[in-house]
Structure formats: structure tokens, C-alpha cells
């Protein structure tokens, strides 16, 4: 039983190095969580084999920590509110303030737990806990120490303090970091080196469990460089630790009088007194062999049954095969001795002892057969609560949950303070009563790093996870920022939304657009169904000039609104687009003299004060009147044919949108307006496999080309503003060659221009564009699929295994529920939450009346 800690175990922290007072040196890393639930057995086995290989070949003592960090929704939204700028900022800040209140009322503002995974590797070989002492090797080590000089002698020679560390020694351990990091990165997808502030958190969080988390710092420098001289007068640089910086992290009263728990009491930064009941449990026994899949004992703390935070500390001392078999032999002898003593006393042998003897013998035989190394493990769990009753409920729930996996947890009396210290980075194992001798596979099968976390934990609230009811936050422009601490798998700002009609895909698309605009972004929405016509009336928060919904062709002011000279950001771009449109409509290619006439006419129009597409035809007529006498009959026929073709086109529906006229009262799309919706009547896009033949097909495609040009202008506008180009019911656009080209262009270049393409359609097969760029979108959302084939296509698009379980899941998603894959490649089912009733009404595309909505909400 440990009553006090005579010396704090951590001596110094330098970058990701943690030096212990007993000479141990730890390199620290954080493993980014990986999604696990939706993968098939083959993929899961791959994870298992990778971790088994790591723990077999990483011949070091390890300290694994699984720490839940409370993600405070208030802090997330406060940070988001602070970042908002632009014309929508006042409204956005007010709405996100209301969102904070909503989450607080639903008890989610401070209950979002995100698990983090830390691994500390002990790299001072001299301090490895379990070593085979080979006399020859030991003699060589002694000789090496003699050549280098004993550490104590060196300390005395140059006047080092006991806590001082030679900078040369620090650099040597940094060199080892490359090797260790390389081994870890081969096992886990993303591994970040710990920083001094993170190590500070890992120390301090032990004294603040369940209480207000201390302020996070960007730097934590607790050492200073000083120069000393050895006996030969040679300068030596050393790092001298300011120990008070470490000690003040422990400012907490610890009451161990309850026996099976501790009471922590501290004053937070606001001066308020906080108290927390904390209990530690140890693994007394667990299956000796790896059983995979099905025994993911580390991952288990994120199950449905455990709706409270749980911490895990695993101290695993690496043992060569020779040592582990010897230890198991000793354990067998001890158990046999207990059995003999019981028989001498005339007592019946405890069946537990017999079972343990058989278990030890079985494991011993396995190690002797395989020759593999092993680990002597101490596994501790920690739970906490604000009162004793709740704490006991959580202890019982944890014991019960692990009993299902044949893992026995105990809550010992009198050892709580010792277990408390064992969680500290740089500390050592105090739990000597419950030693576990296991093969590397037992540690690997725990699935260290597997997570149910989803989203960015930044930005705005979108909904809740179906599994644990956690709030999901996303920051749509995060993928392109290339931040060092963001280990995203997808860099694209573009988004895919799919699913059968009536399940919620348009609703989610609208919700994303709304919150992006309220966050200071801009959105342009192509609306082929006309669902958004009443947004100016129903959608809250917009002034008249901030939201515009156009039904192109419905008003006289729409004439000429897509004229290249009115939508392009430069005259050169307008010239290029005009030539592209007119040559396409007139079937004039490079070898055709009509193409030359168009080039000359467009060039002349660009010189006019108010250029527009109709004036190209007028320039052609002027050329005819001016040059007909000197033109050949063939050339004149060609020019007449071109003029006649343009006159015919101008009389066709949709053409008036493209052909602006001089002196026209027109309105144009704006690059500055926060939200614009474009509804186009009579648009008829041909499939990419079928060339446009009819004039309506050609005009429809020309309108799309013009919209493409505006999309590019939007993309090329202010990089500081996040922009989204939105295409609802995108199947026809993606199947069209020009629409496919636009999609690929925005996805490919949008990251640089801070622009995302948001596509909504029914099936994954719609996203197979010609250049395959659509496969590289960032976030993906899929609502319920109707048929097996559709579900299989979507799973393939998500890079998830096509299993009966996953196909069934895709078909059984409820209305408003979708499978979300974030920019980190993690996948989870979420329930979309609009927060405000007004948004629910504005985005509802069903035929419900207002009265029916009222009755439904009662």
C-alpha cells in the first residue's frame, strides 16, 4: 500500500521526450483514431496482424494510455463565432449563440467525449524492466560505461544537479525517435509525435479528472540551457529543469480514506472549488491467448453500454521468450506450492488454483512452441463521478461489461493511490498483485486506436451519432488548411450526398448551405426541381440583397443574364467563352471558315462599350454589307449560313438567357452575394454518350457551359472566403460531358481557391465522372438505398467492404439518418438535426401543410 509519493516521477519534458527520475526515458506519440465498426473480418484481421507485428518486434517497455477528453460544445461554437466575418456575421453569431443554448438544453454542451490514444516507448535500454542478463553482454556494457565515465562521476566533475540532463544525451534519444516513429507509422495510419504541451496535459489531467479542464497552452518550456565545464575545461551544455513548473500541475488534495476510491479536490482557474470521486480497477485475469475478432477489449470502452468516460493505462514490459517462459515456470511452481500447502493442512484444493495452473501450463507450452516474446502487463481502468453513488454504478457497469469477455476486473481496497500514480507519464508500475503474462496478440487484439469518433470537433453542429448520441461538428473548409495537427485522409473541400428520394438528402444539402453562409461563406445553388422558390419568405436571417432565388426565363429581366460578357470576370474570359458557345451552337470547327468569322466578330465586339452576344451577329452583318463585293460566292454562302443559324437560335427558348441585347434592363449573377439559387426552366441535358443534336440539347448544354463559367469565376474570386458551388439532382449534370468537366475542375482546383463542389444525387454510379475526380471528394453522406446493387455501389464508393451486414445497414437507414464519412476516413451513422423549427419548415420538400406539421410536432 502506497501512502505518499516521495519524488514526482517526471524529471523533465523536452518535445516528445519524457525523462523519469529513475533514469527511464520515454518517447511519446499520439495515434490518430481509426474507424473500425463497418469493416469486414479481413480488414479487421489486417489491423490485428499489423499491431501484433508491432508489439512482437518493438522490443521496448510500453505505456499505453486511452484518455477521454471532453469536447466542450460551448468552446467549439465560441471559437467558430469568433472566426465569422463578412455581411452575414451579425446574423450568424446570433444564430450560433442560439445553437449553443439548444445544445445546453439537450445536455450535450459538455458531454461529448472523444477518446485519444497515446503510446510512450521506454528507450533507455539499461532501464528495461525485464532483461536477460548475459554475463558476456554485461561485461561489455560495464567496459563501455568505464570508457564513457559513470554518470555520477560526470555529474560531480562538471557540477551537474541531479535533475540536469546533458544536451548530447537528449540528442541521442531524439535520433532514436526516427526509428520508433517509423515502426509506429507502419502500423497505424497517422501517428503524431507528442509535444511538451500534450505531455503537460497528460500529467495534469490526472489531477483534474472530471473537473474543469485547465487552459490548453501552445508552449510549455520547463528547462533552460546552461553551460558548465568539465575537469578538462571543456564546455558542456545541459538542460536544467524548473521542477516547480511540473509540481504546480499537481495542485490537488487527494483523500484516500474511502479505501476503494479517491476523492480529488481542487480550485479551478475561476476560484471555484471542485470535487470528484475517482476509482481505479485492475484486470485480475483475462484469456491468455489472442481471440480475434471478438475480444477487442480496449475498444470495448466505447460500447453502447458504457455511456460514461473510462480511462485505460497499460504498462507492458517486453520480455524475451527465455524470460517469459522462466516467469511462467516460477508462477506454476508458486501455484503448485499453494496447492501442496492446502493439501498438507487437510483442506480441499481451491478450484481456482487448479484452473490457474492449467492456464499457466497452456500459455507456457505455447511460448515454448512458438518462441515468440511476451509482455508482463498491468492493465488499469479509471472511472469517475461527482458523487459516490454514481461512481459505484459506473464501477459495477464496467465490471459487468468486461465480464462478458471473460475479463475479471477488481476494485482493490487500499491500492487506489498507487494506481493513481501508475497513470502518470514517466512513472512506473505500482500494480504488482495482478500481473498478466501475455503474447503480443493479446495486446494487439484490444484494438488500440480504434474509435467511434466522427467529424472535426470544430465548426458548427450538424447532428448526433446514432450509436452514442454524440454531437457531430464539422468545419467544411478544414480539409484544405493543411494544419500540422490535422491528420486528414481527404484534402478535398467537395462533398457528395446520395440516397433515395424522400430520405433527407436535399434537406441535408440545404442545411449545409445555410450554415456555411451563416459562417461567412458564399453559396451558388443549381436547383432543377424548383424546391427553393420560397426561401426568401421562409428562410430566416437574410436581408433582401443577401439572398436571391431566380427562376431563369420567368422574368423579362432574365434576358441576357447568362451572356458571357455579363458573367465573366474578365474580357478575355468573356471572349473565350463567347467563341466556345457560338462555335458549338453553329457547329463551326477550326477548319471551317465560319469559325474565323466568329473570331473576328467577337474581337470587334470586345472593343465596344457595352458588349453582348447579340452584337456578334450584328458584326457579321456589317461584314457582309461591307465585304460582300469582294467575297467569293462560297465565302458569302458560308457567312450567310452563319448569320441565318444565329438568327434561328435566338428565337429558341433558353437562347434569350445567353444572347444579351444592347440597352437591355437585365440582372446578373453576383460574385459577392452570400446566397444565390438558380432555377432553370426547359433545361434538357443530353447524356455524355450521346452528342447534342437538337437545338434544345445544344442550348441546354450552352446554358450549362455559361453556368460553368460563372462557377469558375466564383471559384477564382476572393480566396479568403469559403465558397460552395451546389448542384442538386446532379445526375444529369455529371453524365453530361460539360457538367462532368466542371465538376472535375472545381474538385481538382477548389482546394487552392477555397471552393467546394456540393453534389446531390440518388446513386453512387452517378459520381463516376470521366476524369474520376469525383471519387476524390472529402466528406460523404449517404441516406437509405432501395436496392442491394445501389447499396453495394455506395459501400464501394466509401471504400467499405460489401458485406450482408453493411448492405442491410444501408437499406435500413431511417429518414433523416445517413452514413457519414469524414475527411479522416472515419465512418458513422448520424441523425441530421436542423436545430431550428424554421429551418425544418423551410427545407421540408414534402406536401405536409403547416397544420399537419404542427400536429406532428405535438
From TrEMBL:
Its domain of life reads: Bacteria
UniProt xrefs under InterPro entries? ATPase_SAG2001_prd (IPR016628), P-loop_NTPase (IPR027417), T4SS_component (IPR051162)
Report the Pfam families cross-referenced here.
AAA_10
Q: Where are the transmembrane segments?
A: none
Name used for this protein in its record: Recombinase RmuC
Q: Which organism is it from?
A: Bacillus thuringiensis
